[in-house]
Amino acid sequence: MKFITYYCLLPALASASTLINRTIDDTFGDGSTDRSVVYNPVDVWTRGDTCQNCYLYPNNRPRPSNVPSGTGTAVNTTLTHNGTWHDTTYFPDSGNAPYNITVSFKGRAVYVYNILANAVNGTETNTILDFNLDGEDVRPYTHFPNVSAPPLLYNQLVYVNSSIPDGQHTLIMSTGNSRPSLVLFDRVDYT
After folding, report:
1. What are the pLDDT digits (tens) for 129-156?
2. CA 157 to chain centre
3. Pairing mode of beta strands 136-143, 181-190
4. Beta strands of the chain (E only): which ranges?
């Protein structure tokens, strides 16, 4: 009789321990919670797939007229999540406060994916990021261009933490240190 009872409980136990991966898209947010990404300051972030004057422009649109020949490069929108990304370039000598992205999620692991630029003429290609999880500074991320690599690297993991306590969390990705930085944010996955 005990065997039958345990056997009947197995599906319930298995489903209770199943982890579900969710995505917070740069543009469309989290489809399971309707939460959006918060960009700050909002006026320095550009939706890359619709940008009319960006040096990193969508491949399904013509090169912007302000981007001289031999500079910039097309972003392959089929290699981005939902065909979208958000970008900004931070220059420390501008006197601006750091630029950041904030996402909230409930889970036990988080993964941040960006597009990284290598040698792209006419634009900054260093990516220097700081991360703050639940009010604590965590591992920074730095990418310096590799001129022998492809101009753009897609689905690049710039932050991962798979050992956070299960619960509600706030993650802030920011740039604003002593070096210029290009940010091409694509998505956050969490479990």
Report:
1. 999 999 999 989 999 999 999 999 999 9
2. 8
3. unpaired
4. 22-25, 29-30, 38-40, 46-47, 56-58, 73-75, 86-90, 99-107, 110-117, 127-133, 136-143, 152-161, 167-175, 181-190
Instruction: Measure the CA dihedral 71/39/60/91, to 10°.
Output: 0
User: Whole-prediction pTM value?
Assistant: 0.89
Q: Which residues contact 7 (CB under 8 A, 6 or more apart)?
A: none
Cα–Cα distance, 153 to 30 (Å, whole number): 24
Tokens of 66: 């302000």
Distance CA 161, CA 176 (A): 22
Q: Which tokens hold the place of 133?
A: 């999880």
Q: How many angstroms separate the first and last alpha carbons of the chain?
A: 37
Q: What is the DSSP string of 105-152?
A: EEES-EEEEEEEE-S-TTS---EEEEEEETTEEEEEEEE---TTS-SE
Structure tokens at 125: 């290609």
